[in-house]
């Protein structure tokens, strides 16, 4: 898991041993935090690093304000797994089924533009 202040270079020596990298887009601790905008670039930089070094099979999971609003940019940047919380799957205005359907539709739309 890479917290916002953890540089991608820390992955260099462990890539042979991981199947997934988790990028935190907020500082861990509590729900409802705002996304740190620079973390979208970090997701993209991580995808570039993995793809350019022969580790394109490694998944990028994103955790922290994975909201309906931010999911398109996260997926476009290279996220392949999303940790849904109060910003999406457990959003107070949606049932879980409605929220999951909305997330799937958003991801489908982004992937269709690639």
Q: What's the helix and strand layout?
A:
Blueprint: E1 20-24, H1 38-52, E2 59-63, H2 71-77, E3 81-83, H3 96-112
Parallel strand pairs: 1-2, 2-3
Helix pairs in contact: 1-2, 2-3
How would you portray this structure in words?
This protein has a three-stranded parallel β-sheet, with helices on one face. Helix 2 links the parallel strand 2 and strand 3. The protein has 114 residues and is an alpha/beta fold. Helix 1 runs parallel beside helix 2 and helix 2 packs across helix 3.
Number of strands: 3
Report strand %.
Answer: 5-15%
* Largest sheet properties: 3 strands, parallel
Q: Which sequence of SSEs, written as H and E, runs from N to C?
A: EHEHEH
Tally of DSSP helical segments? 3
End-to-end separation: 27 Å
Strands of the largest sheet, in order across it?
1-2-3
| Rounded Rg | 14 Å
Helix content: 25-40%
Give start-end ranges of low-pLDDT stretches: none
Question: What gross morphology would you assign?
Answer: globular
Q: pLDDT average, as an integer?
A: 95
Strand pairing plus helix content: what structural class?
alpha/beta
Jot down its keywords.
114 residues, alpha/beta, three-stranded parallel sheet, 3 helices
Outline of the structure:
34% of the residues lie in helices and 11% in strands. With 114 residues, it is of the alpha/beta class. The chain is globular.
């Amino acid at each position: 898991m890479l917290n916002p202040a953890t540089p991608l270079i820390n992955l260099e020596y462990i890539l042979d041993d991981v199947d997934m990298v988790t990028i935190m887009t907020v500082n861990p601790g509590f729900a409802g935090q705002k996304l740190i905008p620079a973390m979208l670039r970090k997701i993209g930089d991580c995808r570039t690093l993995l793809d350019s070094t022969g580790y394109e099979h490694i998944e990028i999971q994103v955790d922290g304000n994975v909201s309906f609003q931010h999911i398109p940019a996260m997926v476009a940047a290279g996220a392949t797994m999303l940790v849904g919380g109060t910003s999406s799957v457990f959003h107070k205005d949606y049932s879980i089924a409605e929220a999951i359907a909305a997330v799937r539709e958003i991801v489908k739309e982004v992937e269709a533009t690639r």
